[in-house]
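Hey,

The postdoc asked me to send both predictions to you directly instead of through the lab channel. I've kept everything plain text so nothing gets mangled by the mail client. Protein one:
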Amino acid sequence: MGGNNPYAEKPWLALYGAGQPAVIAAEYDDALSLFRAAVARAPAEPALLFFDSAQSYAELDIASNAFAAALADRGFVRGDRLAIYLQNHPAFVVALLGAWKAGGIVVPVNPMNRQRELAALLADCRPAALVCHDDLFEEVVSRLDPAGRSALPEAMYVVPPRAGQSRHDDRVFGVARTCRCDGAQDFLRVVADYAGKRPPEQPPLAADEPAFLVYTSGTTGPPKGAMNTHANICFNAQAYRDWMGLEDGTGVLGIAPLFHITGLVAHVMTAFITASPLVLTYRFEPAVMLAAAREHRPGFTVAAVTALIAMMNHPDATADALASLKTLYSGGAPIPPSTVEQFEQTFRLYIHNIYGLTESSSPTHAVPMGARAPVDPASGALSIGVPIFNAQVWIADEDGQPAPVGKVGEIVSSGPMIVPGYWDKPDETAQAMRPDGFRTGDVGFMDAQGWFYLVDRKKDQINAGGYKIWPREVEDVLYSHPAVREAGVVGVADEYRGETVKAVVSLKPGAAASPEALQAHCKQAMAAYKYPRIVEIVDELPKTPTGKILRRELRG
């Protein structure tokens, strides 16, 4: 980086909490060592809470040993991939650990994927084994076309979707009801049959071996498998623990899907490093999540803002529902300042902002505990925080040089959390993982105090008659309207301006607002060239399973 570099002095260090170090030393090289440390110090404590079913760390260790032994018996070897095509179910965690114990790499698969998406992923990673729900096996796996079926592994295991929800149901680690799916074995029966067995001994997993292949959401192109190494995920699990001051036994509320990097690191790995219970509810439903929080009293979670909005607007939303949470962070999509205020009024709980990507193994930035993120007076953006431990972050201008303080450019990050590349994609790896850092594709800036702000995705900028407009700014204004629940803004073709601004909005339950009223609200709050010329009101906005609004689907 040539010229004067305003990021070299790390002005954000002054914003760290009292006694908070700038650099920490990694305690674990691989995820299995981290998990085994939890088993050693808290064997009888709950590891997984799933409705009224509980499994201890010792039971989870035994069950994952059993599955690892079963994998090995069917030829699974070091470096093989296990695809996990499940909801937030205890079997996901058993399978994950079993794959590592057998020397493998875990490939989490979005359970909303249908035949086309699943076939593309299988063809890319070529798994040696697959675990999925029995209904997904019947509805998706068994209906793959010949090309898709050719990528299916011989070893396939199926899980009843709701097994283990009640002590009166089939137990997760006990004798399960039989799943009859041609060509697949019953996962729970296999775990029961192999109880007490272990996989063959092998050398410890290496820090630089992939622990996960996590496929990017594909919001800007075809999904790519980010190779999250054991060192990557262990470091960021430790970063969560130390940054948030989490103690052993702090319950983790599993709001994010486990196939996503937030679920994998902020939920599973953070629960392991703190020997804490992970609360799972199969899939996100606001009422169910609020009930689980009341019952199990977790102390920590990270969630997409869309999930928090859904919980806040649910009839069961009362302050006592989330009273046990001492630490709440939100990432994955920008948070409107008005939403933070409304959430705090409802739950008496402040949402700390956090920022990261699949390629950064969850966070590179976070708001320090006890601090409140500032709002940029010019753009209205809420700060995403400051770089976490060991993260090196700067803003690149259009020439690839450090942008001046306050100037918008691409966020570039490096550190022990950044993946080495994408699975079997050297060209894409070289383009993103450069010597001076990972090019995130996100646009933002740093203020004079060291706070960072996310403006938008580079590819989402709207050019209306030569004026540059960031959708995020228009969305924040829409969110400040009392009737708006969610908002997405995109550029659409316009004969006169080239592009114009389109807003798609959903309203809060019982609220009313016309497109003209929302237009007028925006027109009053921003420059004339920015307000949306088109406003469409819908029941629900299209989203990824992790809660990001799919802007590309709003353009139609």
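Protein two:
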Amino acid sequence: MLVDNFDLDAYHHRIGYAGPPEPTLPVLRSVVAGHATTIAFENIDVFRERGVRIDVVSLQDKLVLRGRGGYRH
């Protein structure tokens, strides 16, 4: 399922979420727990001065397709 150019099914697979894609509190809790335990904090791009891209396509590529970690500003 694509949502605003983001492959939600691929993201759910990456974080180990196999439930329904419904906007409910239990689903949100499961998705947040899966994300927090699967996608680690990573700041390699910042240290290498590559910049931080947070558009949907860049996030999909980094977090889901390449299996890398997320970052914080």
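Summary for protein two, as requested: The mean pLDDT is 86.

Thanks,
C.
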